[in-house]
Design brief:
200 residues; alpha+beta; Jelly Rolls; 2 domains; globular
Length: 200
């Protein structure tokens, strides 16, 4: 009987962990402070933040500008987003990683085209263009895998970015799915135990 229970428990554990859990890193930039609305200096995202190196990414608070602009809509968590300072190309780099996606907004113009390229060892592997709006933050699944550098550029206007997500390995199981699977496995264990008792 004990052997049967142990086998069933092992099966439960194997199936449970096969469902998989997300180990994605999501960077929200809310650790930075952009508190002075009259200061023209915006906090820079420092190298090492989130384990990555950053070039030409600066932090902006959603209340930095009081008139209509995309920065008001760029934040999907907390109060900060980042943007490409002076509309210059912005770069994220480090050792190999997978870029899954982020929320993007056009900072000023109603429509803006963002080009993202992904490279490894200096060779471009990916290049995608995304149409941005200045009235809503839009999530884009980018899914550049095995890159060590990302380049972000626009023409004529800044972009804002929030919830930069990378190194996602597996989908998070829905709680209802986990509960249903667990209930089924417990039922199976109970059935085996009852069957074993009858044979005794």
């Amino acid at each position: 009987m004990k052997k049967s229970i142990l086998i069933n428990l092992a099966a439960c554990l194997v199936l449970f962990f096969m469902v998989g859990f997300s180990s994605a890193t999501v960077l929200t930039f809310d650790e930075f402070v952009d508190s002075n609305p009259y200061d023209t200096i915006y906090p820079e995202v420092y190298d090492g933040y989130g384990g990555l190196d950053w070039n030409n990414f600066n932090v902006i608070h959603e209340d930095r500008y009081t008139y209509e602009n995309g920065y008001q809509y760029a934040n999907v968590s907390g109060t900060n987003s980042v943007f490409n300072y002076f509309d210059r190309t912005a770069v994220i780099s480090n050792s190999t990683f997978d870029f899954n996606g982020a929320y993007f907004t056009s900072a000023w113009t109603s429509v803006n085209i963002l080009t993202i390229t992904g490279s490894f060892n200096g060779s471009q592997l990916y290049s995608e263009q995304f149409r941005l709006s200045n009235t809503t933050a839009t999530w884009f699944d980018v899914n550049f895998f095995g890159v060590d550098e990302l380049s972000f550029s626009t023409v004529g206007s800044h972009f804002a970015m929030d919830n930069f997500t990378y190194n996602e390995t597996a989908p998070v199981p829905e709680p209802a799915t986990v509960l249903l699977m667990g209930a089924g496995l417990l039922g199976l264990m109970g059935y085996n135990r009852k069957r074993f008792s009858k044979k005794s």
